[in-house]
Each structure stands twice: as C-alpha cells, then as structure tokens.
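dumping this here before i forget
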Amino acid sequence: MTLHAHELVGPTSHFYVSQRLRLHYVDWGNHGETPLLLVHGGRDHARSWDWVARDLRRDHHVFAPDLRGHGDSAWAIGGTYSMVDFVLDVAQLLEAVDRFPVTIIGHSLGGAIALQYAGVFPERVSRLVAIEGLGPSPRLIQKRRATPAWKRMEDWIRQMQSFAARRPRHYPTIEAAAARMREANAFLSEEQAQHLTVHGVMRNEDGTYSWKFDNYVRAFAPFRFDTEDMRSLWGRIACPTLLVRGTASWAGDPVEDGRIEAFTAARSVDIEDAGHWVHHDRLDEFLGVVRAFLAGQG
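structure:
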C-alpha cells in the first residue's frame, strides 16, 4: 500500500500550562483548516488518535492533548483528578491555540470532558462527537445515590490509600506490555497494540517498562455532578452533536435510557461489533460516520 505524505508525517510536540502543571499536546498541522480537537479517555494518551488524526488532518487542523496524569503531561500534585480540572485544562489549551469555533471528538472520559466544555461554552464549539462519553447510566447513578454520602467518602479514602501503596507494574519488554493491552481490548490487532504501547509506556532505569499514566487517575470521586446538573449542561450545547456507541460495549444506549432527550441537536449512532474503543475496534466504519457528520450530512 502506498502512503501519501500526510500519512507519513507525524505530529509536532508542544506544551502549555494549566494550574501550574506542564501539559502536553500534539499538533498534526494543516494550518488554516477547521480546528479539530481530539480528547482521549482515561488511562490513554494523545497518540491513541493517530489513525483518526491521519485521516481527518486532510481537511482539519488537528490537535490532541495528553490529559493531566496521562501521556507526557504532568501528574497532578496530590493525585486528585476531577472533571472540573480536566475541563479547565481543555479550556486553557483552546485559549492558547486560539482557534474558535472548534470541532471536538472525545472518547469516554474525553467525551464527557468535551460535552461539559461545550455546555459551558456553546458558542465555541461548532460540532461535537462523543464516543461513549455520557458516563454512568441512569440505573448506575440511581444505585450510587442509594449509597450514603459518608460511605462514598469512606470508600474514596480507602481507595486513595490503596493507590498510595500501589507500585506501577514493570514489564520486561514493550511486547509484554502490548500483550497486556490486548488482554484489556481483544479487538486490537497486534499492530495497534504495539503502536499504542510504544507511545503509552516509559522506560524505567532498570530497563523495564511501565505505563505513563498516574495510578491515581483510576479513582472515582465520591461526589460528582448530579443528573440534573449534567442534563442542564447537555441542554446548553448548541452545536450538532453525535453520540457514538459500540454494540459490544458495556455502555448504555442513550436513546433507550432517555439521556439523549437532554440534548437539543443530538443523534445517536451504534457501530456494530465494536467495544468501548469504537475508533480502534471499527476504524473504517467510525471514520465513515464521522466524516459524513463533519461534512454536515447528519
């Protein structure tokens, strides 16, 4: 297969500051075209978007950040990672880039961040794609509400204490780490897992490899925006919004559970035989749906 120039040249690396943290992002170039921000999910990194970025950079100026605690961005002092901090970081990056309005595609945690940002600054977002970014289903939220506040706080304290005692796992080779990644997502090819691992690990002094993300990003905050707050934010999103879901994923269906009703201009699309990482599991199908949406065809 012959690769064109835009498929061969990789992104440039840049840094910006948010809450005194030095945060990293990559820029895929194509200056002057419509700005497009790609926001990864939890325990992931900016380079997980490479396949999507290489395709969409033909018509867009693509940026992709490493969220705080991920990739080549700094870890948060104290180890607390809240949604409001992530949204602030994206706001800081977009103000540094200063290209509005922007199109945003976010996956999982990144999708949730994108939805909240667009709810706060609806005039700054022209189109939005959220891949399984709606968070817990209404059923899970209701179950969480049934747990007393003191118990949620106690569980969080115990969880944070356990992370303090946890040491990053060391893998003898990149291939061993890649094999672990394929255990987590059986849809990945060996080539995909190798690429994601190369950009997702750091080499330790003893020659082994560990994941770049901070273990504390695994924690779930004891208190979050409630359902009414979230629906209020989603209702402020003014741009066309596409909610993408894999049929083989654990994520709930926003049409069936009613969450899509909070949006004023959203539609939901299911990608068959895709798990939670839809853009990895069924890349061609995902790109086809997204290209049509970004072109205003849906």
